[in-house]
Amino acid sequence: MKVRVFRCKACNHRYRLGVSQCGYCFRPTALWNRWWVLLTAVVAGGWFAAKEFGLI
Predict the structure, then answer these.
(1) Alpha helix locations (H) across 1-56?
(2) Which residues, 6 or more positions from 32, have their beta carbon under 8 angstroms from its beta carbon?
(3) Residue-wise DSSP of 38-49
(4) φ/ψ (deg, to 5) at 7
(5) Is the pTM here over 0.70, yes or no?
(6) For labeling, which of 13, 18, 22, 53 is most exposed (least CB within 10 Å)?
(7) pLDDT tens digits, residue range 7-43?
(8) Taking Cα atoms as reference points, which of 25, 49, 53 lies closest to residue 8?
(9) How many helices (H) and strands (E) does the chain have?
(10) Distance between CA 31 and CA 20 in Å, rounded?
(11) Distance, CA of 55 to CA of 47 (rounded, Å)
(12) 12 near 23, Cβ under 8 Å?
């Protein structure tokens, strides 16, 4: 079973994490839904936390 967490703002269709466009109306999804944006946020957050705790 696939988990579809997000909804398209145009047609209210549910889509999965990481898709670049809605599977129903083919409109682009929000930028934060892309997997590389989330990966970049996690890496940047880890880097800032490591700097804060003196690990780097």
Answers:
(1) 35-52
(2) 38
(3) HHHHHHHHHHHH
(4) -125, 145
(5) no
(6) 53
(7) 999 999 998 888 899 999 999 998 888 888 888 999 9
(8) 25
(9) 1, 2
(10) 8
(11) 9
(12) no
